[in-house]
């Protein structure tokens, strides 16, 4: 299975989703720039996407929810060891309330691996992120400057982007009903 990610305005991503309505495509809204995620066994309809192979997964993505995508740029010779380490973990977030699904992604044309998580809402994600389980699951992250140096497998610091499956108004209250 493959996951392809394309970025652009929400209007354009919605247009592409409608054009290819027989494909498994989900528009993810994330502020100024939205993302269209295409999950397929074959090739994508996108011209220049970020391209990934799914190497591990739990659950199936649902039509609505809250997504996080953590991008991890790894040196070429460290991909297999990094992905193997993540796959061998009993990831605590898969047992958290509000967890729906996750996919661990190996890049096809770059050095950037990705972890996509789907949650019922931002509060579920934040509860896990604020727990000690987060540090165990994502021990490669250094968001709180808890380590003196980044792991040797990482080319640059990883980062996480958050998305919703529906446009969110800026002044709406944050809850788990997306």
Automatic annotation (TrEMBL):
Q: Which SUPFAM superfamilies match?
A: Dimeric alpha+beta barrel (SSF54909)
User: Which keywords annotate this record?
Assistant: Monooxygenase, Oxidoreductase
> Start and end of every ABM domain?
67-136
Does Phosphoprotein show up as a keyword for this record?
no
> What InterPro entries would the database entry show?
ABM_dom, Dimeric_a/b-barrel, Heme-degrading_MO
Q: What are the GO MF terms of this UniProt record?
A: monooxygenase activity
Q: Does the keyword Oxidoreductase apply?
A: yes
PANTHER family the record matches? SIGNAL TRANSDUCTION PROTEIN TRAP
This protein is called Antibiotic biosynthesis monooxygenase
Q: Which organism is it from?
A: Kurthia zopfii
- List the top taxonomic levels of the source: Bacteria, Bacillati, Bacillota, Bacilli, Bacillales
């Amino acid at each position: 299975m493959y996951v392809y990610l394309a970025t652009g305005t929400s209007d354009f991503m919605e247009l592409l989703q409608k054009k290819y309505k027989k494909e498994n495509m989900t528009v993810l809204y994330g502020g100024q720039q939205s993302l269209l995620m295409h999950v397929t066994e074959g090739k994508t309809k996108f011209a220049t996407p970020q391209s990934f192979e799914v190497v591990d997964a739990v659950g199936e993505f649902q039509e609505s929810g809250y997504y996080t995508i953590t991008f991890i740029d790894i040196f070429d010779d460290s991909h297999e060891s990094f992905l193997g380490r993540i796959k061998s973990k009993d990831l605590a977030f898969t047992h958290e309330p509000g967890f729906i699904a996750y996919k661990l992604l190996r890049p096809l044309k770059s050095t950037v691996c990705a972890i996509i998580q789907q949650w019922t809402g931002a509060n579920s994600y934040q509860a896990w992120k604020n727990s000690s389980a987060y540090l165990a699951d994502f021990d490669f992250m250094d968001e709180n400057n808890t380590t003196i140096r980044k792991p040797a497998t990482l080319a640059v610091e990883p980062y996480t982007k958050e998305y919703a499956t529906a446009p969110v108004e800026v002044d709406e209250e944050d809850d788990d009903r997306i």
